[in-house]
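Hi U.,

Before I forget, here's the chain from the pilot set. I'm dumping it here mostly so it's searchable later in email.
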Amino acid sequence: MRYGLISIIIIGGFVFTLSLLNKNVEAQPFSAERQFSVQYSATMKAFPQTAQSIKVWVPLASSRDGQEIISRKITVPVPYEIKKDSKLNNEILYFEVPVDQLDLITVVIDYEAKLNQESYRNSSLTEDLTPFLDPSKLMVVNSEVKQRAQEATQGKGAVQQKAKGIFDYVINHMSYDKSVPGYGKGDTIRACDIAKGNCTDFHSLFISMSLAENIPARFKIGLPIPESMDEGKIKGYHCWAEYYHPEEGWQQVDASEAKKNPERKETYFGGIDTGKFLISVGRDVELSPPNAGDPVNIFFYPYVEVDGEPFNEISTEFYFKNKTA
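Structure:
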C-alpha cells in the first residue's frame, strides 16, 4: 500500500492542507483464471538456391505448469514431426524443407489455452531439480555474481527472503533500456557491467544470483496476453523467472515488469500471472533431432539450419483473442 503526498502550507497564520495524491494505491492481483486463443506465425524465405539441406525446429507450447492447451492446430506445407528435448521437456515441431520449395515456407500454430492459478500451485512441486541448478553459457555464476548475491542476501536466512533480496537487487541495479546494442541475449556478465537490457537480461541476472545462493531457478519465455483488450497483435516475446521454494514449489518472479510498474512490484514477486503464455523453459536447449550447431540459447523463435549453418531470414507475427464469458 502506498499513500499520497500531503503538503501543509501556512499563509497569514492559517494552515491549509493540500492532498496532492491523497489516495491509496493498491497492487491489483492477477486473474485467477484466463482463457484465450493465440496464433504464432513464422515465415522463412530467401533460402539459398544452392541449399542441399534445410532443417527447421519450432518451439511448441504445451500443457504444463498450470497451463492447459485445449487445442493446438499446426499448419505447415510439408510433413512434420513433434519431438521433445530430453532435459527440459520442451515440445518441438521439426520438419525439413524440400529443395524444390526454397522460395517461402510459412508455419502457423493456432492455440486455445487456459491458465489457472490453482493448477499452477498444484503442479509447482518438482522431484528432480537437477536441470535447474546449473548455469548456462551466458547465464553464468562467477566470482562477481557470487559477490553480488552475497550482498543481496546478507542477513537473510529463508529461501523466500533470499530470493526477495535478489529480486530487489536486480530491480535497483538494472534499467529497462534497449538502446544499447547487445540486449536480449540474457548475458549475465553484460547485465552486471552495463546494468541495462530487457526481460531476458533482468531474469538472467536474477537466475545467476539465485544459483550462486544454491537456490534452484529457471528461465521461461512466451507471449504476454493483454487483459485490457479483446484481441490484437502481440509485439513480441516476454520472459520471466522462477525460483524454487522447498515447501511451496516454483514461485514466479517478473523483475522487468516490476521495474516498469513499480506500483505492482510486490505482485510481481510470487504472484501467478495468468497472462503469461508459456512457450519454452530453460536455456541452452538441446534440440531433437540434434542440430549441427550449439544448443539454442533462448528457444522462442524458429531455429533454422541451412547445410548445417544457422539461417536467420525469419519473420514472425503473434495474435491473441481473449475468451469472453
